[in-house]
Specification:
By secondary structure, the protein is an alpha/beta fold. It is built from eight helices and ten strands. The model has no long low-confidence stretch (mean pLDDT 92). The strands form two sheets. It has a six-stranded mixed β-sheet with strand order 6-7-8-3-9-10, sandwiched between helices. The structure holds adenosine-5'-triphosphate and magnesium ion.
Length: 249
Amino acid sequence: MPLLELKGITRQYKSGQIRVDALKDITLTVEQGDFISIMGPSGSGKSTLLNVIGCLDRPTSGTYELAGQRVERCSDSRLADIRNRFIGFVFQSFHLLPDLDAQANVELPLIYRGMGGRERRRRAVAALEAVGLAERRRHRPSQLSGGEQQRVAIARALAGEPAVILADEPTGALDSRSGRNIMAIFQRLNREQGLTIVQVTHEDNIARHGHRVIHLLDGEMEREETLEQSLVAWREEAAVSLQPEVQEK
Ligand SMILES: Nc1ncnc2c1ncn2[C@@H]1O[C@H](COP(=O)(O)OP(=O)(O)OP(=O)(O)O)[C@@H](O)[C@H]1O
Ligand SMILES: [Mg+2]
């Protein structure tokens, strides 16, 4: 059973007389352990597709199965439940709370889930270690570089032990070195933990860190590329180490 299965998905937005077909007949299967990049020009439907996959939005028509469950029919509360259990989100602008240190930011969603303090701390420290930031766990976002803030956001997503990480332009706000660092982390999580990743990006050299690249155009799936493993492996070797970055100003 595939982890995600979308069939004939459409999403229409209506405002007054104007109808926008943001997604048209998208059929996509994502297996556990896939690392997929979604590319396409601005307005082509990338974020809309990621939001449907992440159960933040519902399709207008079509069917979507996540881990064997028919998502498009679920109630809002059931949808929120599925989202919490299966999905870890990473956004372009990090979405960290400025008054909380890195560890508290990572723990926050676990508090909302009602998890006890000891388990919360264990998961937060493990997740921060996985992104190479254990030593920075008492730093607030303003005391971290952009790349480090994104790594905290990845740790926050990981701490929920999701089945899939969904990342909308995760390197969009970062310089190229920090961006490569984020890709190195994604590749390691994908390869060593079998974590499924779906990312949206404008940048070809970021997209090429995945195994498959899906090209959207005007809400349609224009084409799909499968990348050679040798290229993927080469990228991994070229990836930089995961020490804390020098503070960028
Ligand atoms: N809430 C909304 N109401 C109406 N139209 C919307 C809404 N959200 C998105 N759209 C439209 O749907 C289309 C796809 O938008 P989407 O945000 O998915 O594009 P994108 O590929 O992520 O673009 P970008 O690269 O600029 O982030 C666009 O034409 C957009 O204007
Ligand atoms: Mg977008």
